[in-house]
Design brief:
Order of helices and strands: HEEHEEEHEEHHEHHHHHHE
Number of domains: 2
Helix content: 40-55%
Structural class: alpha+beta
Largest sheet: 5 strands, antiparallel
Strand content: 15-25%
CATH architecture of the largest domain: Orthogonal Bundle
Distance between the termini: 34 Å
Radius of gyration: 31 Å
Number of helices: 11
């Protein structure tokens, strides 16, 4: 779920209760009495320039090949190498005696993973599937987790039962046809380039919108705050602290010290007030611009966003827990945010 306004202000801390039941928490307020808004049309912004590098297309091809890589079984007598996964039995002995945890059967081991002590995996490279009595004379490291084995010489006797090797497909026309309706690699690469271009442009546009919004926000002064809304958010943040402290099984004082960096309730209250006022300023500015410019959204957009939210596993209750708003309030402010930022971008002066 997107948490554009709320989480950016309260650094990821969630809110527990909602304020009121109306969609617009600021309905009935003359926002000109609360805000002194600067010029929000004609904000300067840099033109978006997007370019796709050949290396980016190459990286995408590499990822596609990796995704299509499959493990193939090696035959008996095939030599194993780094990167293969072997199935092994082994017996370890220190001073000629077996020790606890030193023997196993049917263990899967990726050679080169560093799972076993130094020399074990390297010692298997070059041996063959089905080979028995492979002897590895090694030593446990001085800092081994079992104190009684630290620095001890050890001999492992290993059998390679089976092995698999990752097989990457060849990059050719036949391969790209398995990825979609592509005739050849050239056609596939053009499609990849378009996909990368689209993603980079969308990201650049969103960054540009966010930067414009930040400028408009910085050029806005708050004359006064609606006390009840600020109070609500402060109380919500405070309830949240108790909720999450309880969830983690920690003392409230320890919780605020860890997550808020304060040691007293007085310091905490000041910080919560700052969070609440910053959030309220953003919300009021969104409502102000939407009202002045007659920005609205459709019922279809409301339903679509609700379905998107619900498809991610959120219901009315979880939305309230995570955002401090009812589902309708949350959807309202999210759609306003998108619409207002679109408006600001469309009316910006690009240079």
């Amino acid at each position: 779920m997107k948490k554009i306004i709320c989480t950016s202000i309260i650094i990821g801390m969630l809110v527990l209760t909602a304020c009121g039941s109306d969609v617009n928490l600021y309905e009935g307020l003359n926002l000109s009495d609360y805000l002194k808004v600067g010029e929000y049309k004609g904000v300067k912004a840099e033109k978006i320039e997007v370019k796709v590098e050949k290396s980016e297309i190459g990286d995408a091809i590499v990822e596609a090949l990796k995704a299509a890589t499959k493990d193939v079984d090696l035959s008996k007598g095939d030599e194993v190498k780094k990167g293969d996964t072997v199935n092994i039995d082994y017996v370890g002995k220190v001073d000629g005696k077996k020790f606890e945890g030193g023997s196993a059967e049917g263990q899967e081991l990726l050679l080169g993973s560093g799972t076993y002590i130094n020399g074990f995996e390297e010692g298997l490279v070059g041996h063959k599937v089905g080979e028995q009595n492979i002897e590895l004379a090694l030593a446990f490291p001085p800092d081994y987790d079992k104190e009684e084995l630290q620095g001890k010489d050890v001999i492992f006797t290993v059998k390679i039962n089976a092995a698999t090797r990752p097989e990457e497909p060849e990059y050719n026309d036949a391969f790209v046809k398995t990825l979609g309706d592509y005739k050849n690699t050239e056609e596939y690469e053009k499609a990849v380039e378009k996909q990368i271009y689209k993603a980079k442009k969308e990201e650049a546009e969103q960054n540009q919108k966010t930067e414009i919004w930040s400028q408009v926000l910085a050029d806005t002064e708050v004359k006064q705050y609606p006390k009840e809304v600020v109070k609500h958010y402060m109380e919500s943040f405070d309830q949240q602290i108790d909720y999450y402290a309880d969830q983690q099984g920690v003392d409230r004082k320890d919780f605020i010290a860890k997550y808020y960096g304060v040691s007293t309730e007085k310091e905490l209250k000041k910080q919560l007030k700052d969070y609440a006022q910053t959030l309220v300023k953003q919300e009021m500015l969104l409502e102000y611009i939407a009202e002045k410019e007659e920005i609205s959204y459709t019922d279809e957009e409301v339903e679509k966003l609700k379905k998107d939210i619900e498809s991610q596993g959120y219901d009315n209750k979880t939305v309230e827990i995570e955002t401090g708003r009812t589902m309708d309030q949350y959807v309202h402010i999210e759609l306003l945010y998108e619409k207002v930022l679109d408006f600001l971008q469309e009316n910006a002066k690009m240079h």
